[in-house]
Amino acid sequence: MTITTTRRTLMAGAAATLALPAYFRRANAQSALRVAGVHASPVENAWNSRIHLAMQEAAKTGLLEYEFSESVTATDYPRAMREYAEAGMQLIWGESYAVEREAREVATDYAETAFLMGSSGGPQGDNFGVFGTRNHEAAYLAGMLAGTMSDSNVYGSVGGYPIPEVNLLINAFRMGVSEVNPDATFLNGFIGAWFDPARAQEAAVAQIDAGADILFGERIGTADGAQARGVKAIGSLIDYTPRYPDTVFANAIWNYGPTIAAVVADVQADKQVGRDYTEYSFMAHGGNELVYVADMVPADAIPGMEARKKMIEAGVFEVPIDPAEPA
Amino acid sequence: MIESLDLLFSASLWAAVLRIATPLIFGVLGALLCERSGVLNLGIEGVMTMGAMSGWLSVFLGSDLWTGLLIAAAAGALIGLLHALLTVPLGLSQHVSGLGITLFASALAYYLYRLIVTVGESPPTIDPFRPLDIPILSDLPFLGPVLFVQTAPTYLALIAVAVIAYVLARTPLGLAIRMTGENPHTVESQGLDPALIRIGCVMAGSALMALGGAFLTTAAFNSFFPEMVQGRGWICIALVVFSSWRPGKALLGALLFAFFDAYQLRLQTVVEGVPYQLFLMAPYILSIVALILVARRAQVPAALMTPYRRGER
User: Fold this and answer.
1) Is B266 left (phi over 0), alpha (psi -120 to 50) or beta?
2) Is the Cβ pair B221, A190 closer than 8 Å?
3) pLDDT value for A111
4) Shortest distance, CA A181 to any CA of chain B (angstroms)
5) What is the Cα–Cα distance from B237 to B29, expressed in whole angstroms?
6) DSSP string of A180-248, one letter each residue
7) Same domain assignment for residues A127 and A144
8) Is ipTM over 0.90?
9) Residue A190 and residue B276: Cβ atoms within 8 Å?
């Protein structure tokens, strides 16, 4: 028998082929975890944006279904958590820094729901997991690159508030600088706000006036001050180089994907999530990385930094965690 | 110690003072104008947020920077109209309406921003006002880098102080505004409509406030973020009292606050062993002290916060 291909069968075949991925996606969606994100800040806030983006990417691959609320105030926070729990969300992601007690109460009331919270405290019970922000390893490596780049030997940094997660980052940057440049001196300023770029910029300018010519920008706005004065800056959490191409030469990027993968796997395997997920932010898990512009840094600074990076990834070298307020 | 005093003689400090003061100058002038006509406008924080958003958004969508400022002012005036309608013809509590306006306008700004701008990793940018480098003048020693390398809105703010001061003190319109804030009945007896004057002042004042917000997104920075006004509006409300409702003193108050702020940011870099919170507090504490010293002699507009109802005695 001869097989004849009419235009109609061809069309039908093509349509079926095209529809296949959709079928698989649907099959996948049945096992996708229902996740709700409760963001205390707008999702453009650098820290939240890393989580938001990772969630969206995970949703694209079919790992989870993601809904979110943003700018949820502390007084509203437990309500938002409860609503999502009532709506049958399997995992509620959030940040309990300002609502530790309330968030934990909600978790106790909804024992069937898994919670993962950015928190200053430890995990609680079977269903309340916590995570810390750790891009300090990348900040250390950025410091190693920056260590040979200053003419004045004065390094500045602008932070929001002196909470441990901010402090350890600035301290790691300083340790990285000091490893290659033991004579370096440091300035620091806190602006007392999470989002006041105008003020962060003024703080940066104040440090440049005081001699700093490399700035570690824990807060957005720092690089604007550096740009206005023609000095260099380092970004944190997200990649600021596209925004300040001639100013930001390195970024200590935080990747939240590994944490999401870990917690989703735990929930799906019916394992307890009441544990600390901070480890998934470490470089060994791909949780943070240094992104830098090779043309903007001295070539001889790179091999040392890369060697250090390998040691960190292999677990041979541990970047110290110093949560004390930088002077 | 010597280092801390040396800072006072750096041109960079005083240039920063003008930059930090600019949104406050707009805000305090706007609040002052409203209050001189008898209406307290606690909507300021929301109006500034709306100004910051609408000014930025119009530039983001393709208009030039000056049109952006104009749109910000118009948006501010519109929100001001709402406050004016609630407080003038309806005579509602100015406190409650003002706070409501702040909540409403901040949320509306956020909402409109979300509708139009897609969420990215870092907020999208515009090309903001650049510092002008005024030929010859900017080369003057000390004064040059302080006064003549600012962005255009800073000069606009300074001009606005002069204009408002002149209008209030030297024109029939200014007299009518001041009288409306002191004794609206007299204004009525002159054949003028106090309600109309108040509505006009609240709208114009809100437009000025919105310019203060727009400065943050079109000159000080190049993106909008919902929380970026950061209480600057509330500072302006206090500065009006400090200024004893006079534009010249309002300018002084804004500069004083900005000076404390710029100075503390620099002190953080030279003074060690002092908790940074103390520095951050300094502008507020010193402003309160200044307020106490000055407010005693402040002349409050007599009809401030008193709704005017025709024929009522």
Assistant:
1) alpha
2) no
3) 96
4) 20
5) 10
6) H-TT-EE--EE-S-SS-HHHHHHHHHHHHHTT--EEEESSTTHHHHHHHHT-EEEEEES--TTTSTTTE
7) no
8) yes
9) yes
Task: Give the Å distances, CA to CA, from B92 to B89, B98, B179, B309.
Answer: 8, 10, 21, 12
Instruction: Find chain B residues with C-beta within 8 A of A189's C-beta.
Output: 265, 268-269, 276
Burial B11-30 (b: 16+ CB within 10 A, else e): bbbbbbbbbbbbbbbbbbbb
Candidates B43, B92, B55; CA nearest to B234 is B43
Per-residue pLDDT of chain A (327 residues; tens, 9 = 90+): 455 556 565 555 555 555 555 544 444 444 799 999 999 998 988 999 999 999 999 999 999 999 999 999 999 999 999 999 999 999 999 999 999 999 999 999 999 999 999 998 999 999 999 999 999 999 999 999 999 999 999 999 999 999 999 999 999 999 999 999 999 999 999 999 988 999 999 999 999 999 999 999 999 999 999 999 999 999 999 999 999 999 999 999 999 999 999 999 999 999 999 999 999 999 999 999 999 999 999 999 999 999 999 999 999 999 999 999 998
Nearest Cα of chain B lies from the Cα of A264 at a distance, in angstroms, of 23
Contact B121 A206 (CB under 8 A): no
DSSP-based three-state secondary structure for B261: helix
Q: Are residues A150 and A298 in the same domain?
A: yes
A:B CB pairs within 8 Å: 103
> Token pair for residue B169?
């003190």
B2-116+153-295 has which CATH code? 1.10.3470
Which of A68, A101, A131 is the last residue in one of the domains? A131
- Interchain contact, B119 vs A327, CB within 8 Å: no
Nearest C-alpha in B relative to A236: B122
Inside any domain, residue A251: yes
Q: Give yes or no for A71 touching B (CB within 8 A).
A: yes
pTM: 0.90
The nearest CA of chain A is from the CA of B292 a distance in Å of: 25
Name the residue type at position A62: G
In one-letter notation, the amino acid at residue A116 is L
Same domain, A144 and A126: no
- Of the candidates A222, A265, A272, A266, the one whose C-alpha atom is nearest the C-alpha of residue A247 is A222
Tell whether A46 and A113 lie within a shared domain. Answer: yes
Query: Are the C-beta atoms of residues B44 and B233 closer than 8 Å to each other?
Result: yes
Q: How many separate domains does chain A show?
A: 2
Looking at A77, A104, A131, the residue that finishes a domain is A131
- The phi, psi pair for A171, rounded to 5°, reads -65, -40
Q: Which range marks the domain in which residue A299 is found?
A: 136-255+287-314
Residue B21 in tokens? 């003061």
Q: Could you tell me if A108 and A135 are in contact, meaning their C-beta atoms sit under 8 angstroms apart?
A: no
